[in-house]
Amino acid sequence: MSESGSFSFPLNQRLKSKKTSELVFATGLKIKASPIIVRFLDTPLREPVAAQVMVTVSKRKFKRAVDRNRIKRLMREAWRLEKPALENRLIADEKQRAIVFIFVGNAMPDYETVRLTIASLVHKMLPTKPDQD
């Protein structure tokens, strides 16, 4: 697995596999927190990392590539700062997870909104430990 607690976002942590991303959309769980939806699935990944992430923004809602790229950049930065908690839990549980963040808002967000939304989604995605009896 990857280094625990690292705030970097290297290329091997980006979800690029078409097969895996289709599997996430077909069978993954979905959590909504306006203006972002996250879909995720615990599945074996090709890389030895805890999680691989993909970010998407609708071309229909944001016609200009500059706007889409800006939103994706904000989402990647927010993920980079919020991921250590989730990664550490996944590493402890010896799981791997494919994650897709989808921006569904209609207006250009500010960084603080994106960061708070990603933080709440990461908190909701944390795997729960079964009670030890």
Structure description:
Helix 2 (65-93) packs parallel to helix 3. Helices cover 41% and strands 20% of the residues. Strand 3, helix 2 and strand 4 form a beta-alpha-beta unit. The protein has a four-stranded mixed beta sheet. The model has no long low-confidence stretch (mean pLDDT 91). The protein has a single domain (16-125), classed as Ribosomal Protein S5, domain 2 (2-Layer Sandwich), CATH 3.30.230.10. The longest helix is centred in the middle third of the chain and has 29 residues, at 65-93. It has helices spanning 18-27, 65-93, 111-125, and strands at 29-33, 36-42, 51-57, 97-103. It has 133 residues and is an alpha+beta fold.
Report a brief summary of the structure:
The chain has 133 residues and is an alpha+beta fold. 41% of the residues lie in helices and 20% in strands. 26% of the residues are buried.
CATH architecture: 2-Layer Sandwich
| Unreliable spans | none
Widest sheet: strand order?
Answer: 1-2-4-3
Give me the Rg, rounded.
15 Å
> Roughly what fraction of the amino acids lie in strands?
15-25%
**CATH class descriptor name:** Alpha Beta
Shape, please?
A: globular
SSE string, helices as H and strands as E = HEEEHEH
In total, how many domains does the architecture comprise? 1
- What structural category characterises the helix and strand content? alpha+beta
Q: Give the CA-CA distance, first to last residue.
A: 29 Å
- For the report, how would you describe the main beta sheet? 4 strands, mixed
Q: How much helicity do the residues have?
A: 40-55%
CATH topology-level fold name: Ribosomal Protein S5, domain 2
Q: How many beta-strand elements?
A: 4
| Assembly classification | single chain
Q: Round the mean pLDDT to the nearest integer and report it.
A: 91
Summed up, the helix count is: 3
